[in-house]
Every structure is written in C-alpha cells, then in structure tokens.
Amino acid sequence: MKVIGIIGSMRGKNSREYEIIKRYLKSEKYKNAAIKILTADSLNINFCQGCCSCFNTGICPLDSKDDMKKVKTDLLEADLIIVSSPVYAHQVSGFMKNLIDRLSYWSHTFHLIGKHVIICTSTASSGSEYVLSYLKKIMSALGCIVIGELNVTNITSVDELNEQFQHIEIALSESLNNFDNINITTFQHVLFKSLRTNLIKVNGYEHNYWMNNHMFNYFTFKDYLMYKLSLQKKQSVDKKFEISL
Ligand SMILES: Cc1cc2nc3c(=O)[nH]c(=O)nc-3n(C[C@H](O)[C@H](O)[C@H](O)COP(=O)(O)O)c2cc1C
C-alpha cells in the first residue's frame, strides 16, 4: 500500500499535524506500507496564474518550473491520501489553497477516482469545521472517497485522538473490503451528471479525456467508480499473477 500525506503547515516536521499523522501511521496496518509525507516547507508550489491552460489542454505551464509534477505523481500513485491543513483564519492555509487551485482542473476529470482519503486539521480552538468541510468537498470533487477525519485542538486528549484513529480504521477496512460500503456523496453524483451533460457536447481536452477513459459510458458517478475499482482490482490480481510466474 502506498500512502502519501500532504501537510499544509509551513511548520513542517514541527507541526502538530505532522506529529498526529506520524502517530496514526504507526498502526500495525501500515507496517508494510510505503509512506511519504510532504510538508509545505519542503515544497515549492507557485501561485496559479489563471491562464486556464490546465482546463483547456491538461497541461499547466508551471508544472515544469516547480514541485507540482512531483506532487501529482505521488497523488496518482497513492492508494491512501492524507490531506492536512492547519486552521488559518477559519480556512485552510495559503499553501493548501494554492495547492488546491493547481489541482482544481482534475475536478472535471475525477483524476483521483476511488482513492481513499483521510482529512486532517489542527487548530488552537475554532474553525476546524470550515477546513474539514472544504477539504472534504474538494477531495470528493477530485473523485476520492473520504473515509474519515482527524480534528485536533489544543484541548484534544490522547483518548479522543485514539478514538478518531479507531473510527478511521473501521471505515477504511469496511470501504476496502466491500465496494457496497463505499460512501458516495450527493455532490459527487450531481457533479458527475452536470459535467457529463456539458462535456458530451463540447470538443476539447476534457471531452477527449472523458472519451478516452470511457466515462461517457456511465450515467452516474457510482457506476463509473465501480468500473474503475473493478479495473484496479483486476490489475492488482494480474500483477500478483505476473510476480508468481
Ligand atoms: C495565520 C494563523 C491563523 C490562525 N487562525 C486560527 C483560527 O482562525 N482559529 C484558531 O483556533 N486557531 C488559529 N490559528 C492557530 C493554528 O490553527 C494552530 O496553532 C494549529 O494548531 C497549527 O497547526 P500546526 O501545528 O499543524 O501548524 C492560526 C494560526 C496562524 C499562524
């Protein structure tokens, strides 16, 4: 299992988010996982320039100039993504917003379809509800399955934190073991339908992406997700078979 964590705090390894995520990943479940944690202070991500090249061509001209290409590769290769931001003025940090802007064209193509996500935030006392609901919405728009959240304030006890870890463990196992347990949001359903209706009529990069990935064959997000998950399952069985040969 590949796990990628992205922490939107410039305090990097000194941040509380880093400490919590590290603690969570110590669980037996991740013993054999390949884990990578990227922190805001270790990444150079430029501001989106608003050129819309990503929406029109699938290519961002900034990707060759900063670390975004690396981040995208890590996200695409991951089985589990942990997205984390401190609460700054009742929202995500500037770094995290910047990163999301650079990824937002993937919300028209569901590039991260079926990837499991844990969202995390740390706050002194208030504002976590805005950060959690924003991160949840954005990751859903990218096609991810948000399985749980870590929410820490200055007064969160170790017991409360362990309880949050446990909830995530249960949700992750249920989601991985049975496709029927996967939680699809109304937002994903509506987004898929409206994009499908619009993109089927308009030629261009996004239309071609949907065409090449057989997305127009599916009328709902759930049907497309089930198709992708069964494809991934088949690929992993084929891979195991190749290795055993
Ligand atoms: C610019 C800035 C804005 C902040 N805004 C809030 C806020 O709105 N509400 C709050 O309770 N704490 C706020 N804080 C405190 C941080 O959310 C808190 O210290 C958090 O635990 C930092 O997480 P980290 O250690 O993972 O970086 C703010 C901190 C900074 C630096």
UniProtKB/TrEMBL annotation:
Q: Per its UniProt record, what Pfam families does this chain match?
A: FMN_red
Q: Which organism is it from?
A: Clostridium felsineum
| Entry's Gene Ontology molecular function annotations | oxidoreductase activity
Could you tell me what this protein is called?
Uncharacterized protein
Keywords linked to the UniProt accession: Flavoprotein, FMN
Q: Which InterPro entries match?
A: Flavoprotein-like_sf, FMN_Rdtase-like_dom, ISF_SsuE-like
Any coiled-coil ranges, and where? none
In the UniProt record, does the keyword Hydrolase occur? no
Q: Iron: present as a keyword of the record?
A: no
Q: Which Gene3D superfamilies match?
A: 3.40.50.360
